[in-house]
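can u do me a favor
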């Protein structure tokens, strides 16, 4: 087992890793930018190293500085968290070349599943359904038009190196395709340094369902059931729950088998998520995230398994414990962001003047914020993840509504009121929604 883990991240996920390390008797090393000198992950880690100025490119994305911090603190492993360098194959390779374990899959797997076009082929070869689309990267606008005619409109253009809705455009006719292709490619180049675009059929009313998996060196793959991530705005998730109110036991079994087959096909090690689109009783592979997810707590609550500890154990070469975790109850996670929904979800950095988290039976809050904390303008706007657990969906809903009422954050705008409205919407309460829910909800 590792003796000292450096966390190449910030915010609540850095704290989450630090807590897992402490419970496992592992020393933790935090890295931080100058903007995060007063952050909780800096205070709670056993050691902390400043790695540069506030901008991500000069700090949390600066691979040489992170490797140097690991070397001077004698860290024998690096945990990348999510975002930043979590799915960067070059970073994983540099860790290994420096004699430092990377807590995640091997670089080849990151490349294979991170390149969305290549991932489609890998999954299809594993016998899992993919949406009709281009065989690989589209070289120009003319080829995009040809492929769209073959697939049939509407289609969706996606960045092959993408994520988070960047480099993505839905196209309903050939007249819009050329312009959309150029815009998607430029956006992908700016966001990921890779302007490659592929195309696939666009489903207009799907559910976004993902399966949490954990892979081990002995070839074992454990599935922790599904998460429904259909409540999203511009492909950014707002709320997740497990299990999905739309997934039948039969479909659940099939989805878990498909996810396991994908993970096994790439000899996956560590925590990963296979994402599917489900519509009309059919499901199609969308992508694989080769890291821990923001929404992992809902899977932890229904399985009662600490996924961060399992991820660390898997990367350390240990064998799995329970191959068939029992899934019980229902969990919902609301992302609380420093954003103003009334002003187009504009980020709201600044000083938190009052901060009171909810509590009580079945409530969990993962956060790095506190009264007096200054939210910097340089990073993701996530303040906290509020998780409610109940014996069934109704109890989880009622607990989440109560918890949102109790959550007090002053000094900055947040999405608490928006989450309260979603939870009280009759369509959501009935479980009758898909990925287009927020488009209609925001226009009510």
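np, heres the sequence
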């Amino acid at each position: 087992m590792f003796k000292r883990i450096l966390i190449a991240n910030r915010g609540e996920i850095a704290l989450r890793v630090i807590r897992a390390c402490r419970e496992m008797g592992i020393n933790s090393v935090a890295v931080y930018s100058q903007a995060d000198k007063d952050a909780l992950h800096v205070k709670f880690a056993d050691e902390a190293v400043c790695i540069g100025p506030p901008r991500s490119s000069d700090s949390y994305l600066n691979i040489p500085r992170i490797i140097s911090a690991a070397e001077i603190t004698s860290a024998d492993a690096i945990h990348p968290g999510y975002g930043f360098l979590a799915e960067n194959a070059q970073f994983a390779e540099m860790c290994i070349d420096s004699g430092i374990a990377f807590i995640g899959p091997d670089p080849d797997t990151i490349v294979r599943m991170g390149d969305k076009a290549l991932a489609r082929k890998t999954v299809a070869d594993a016998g899992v359904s993919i949406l009709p689309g281009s065989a690989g990267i589209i070289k120009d606008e003319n080829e995009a038009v040809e492929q769209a005619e073959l697939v049939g409109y509407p289609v969706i253009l996606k960045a092959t190196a993408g994520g988070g809705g960047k480099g993505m455009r839905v196209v309903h006719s050939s007249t819009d395709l050329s312009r959309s292709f150029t815009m998607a490619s430029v956006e992908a180049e700016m966001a990921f340094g890779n302007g490659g675009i592929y195309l696939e059929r666009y489903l207009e009313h799907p559910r976004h369902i993902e399966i949490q998996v954990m892979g081990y060196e002995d070839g074992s793959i454990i599935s922790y059931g599904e998460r429904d991530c259909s409540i999203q705005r511009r492909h950014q998730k707002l709320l997740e729950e497990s299990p999905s109110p739309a997934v039948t036991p039969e479909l659940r079994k099939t989805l878990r088998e498909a996810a396991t087959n994908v993970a096994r096909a790439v000899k996956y090690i560590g925590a990963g998520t296979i994402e599917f689109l489900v519509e009309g009783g059919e499901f199609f592979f969308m992508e694989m995230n080769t890291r821990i997810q923001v929404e992992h707590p809902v899977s932890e609550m229904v399985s009662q398994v600490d996924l961060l500890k399992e991820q660390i154990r898997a990367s350390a070469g240990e064998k799995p414990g329970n191959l068939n975790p029992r899934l019980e109850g229902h969990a919902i996670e609301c992302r609380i962001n420093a954003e103003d929904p009334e002003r187009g979800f504009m980020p709201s950095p600044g000083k938190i003047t009052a901060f009171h988290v909810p509590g009580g039976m079945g409530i969990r809050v993962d956060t790095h914020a506190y009264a007096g904390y200054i939210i910097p303008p340089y990073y993701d706007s996530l303040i906290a993840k509020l998780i409610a657990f109940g014996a069934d969906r109704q109890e989880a809903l009622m607990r989440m509504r109560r918890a949102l009422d109790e959550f007090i954050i002053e000094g900055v705008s947040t999405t608490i009121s928006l989450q309260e409205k979603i939870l009280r919407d009759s369509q959501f309460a009935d479980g009758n929604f898909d990925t287009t829910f927020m488009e209609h909800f925001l226009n009510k």
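The radius of gyration is 21 Å. hope that helps!!
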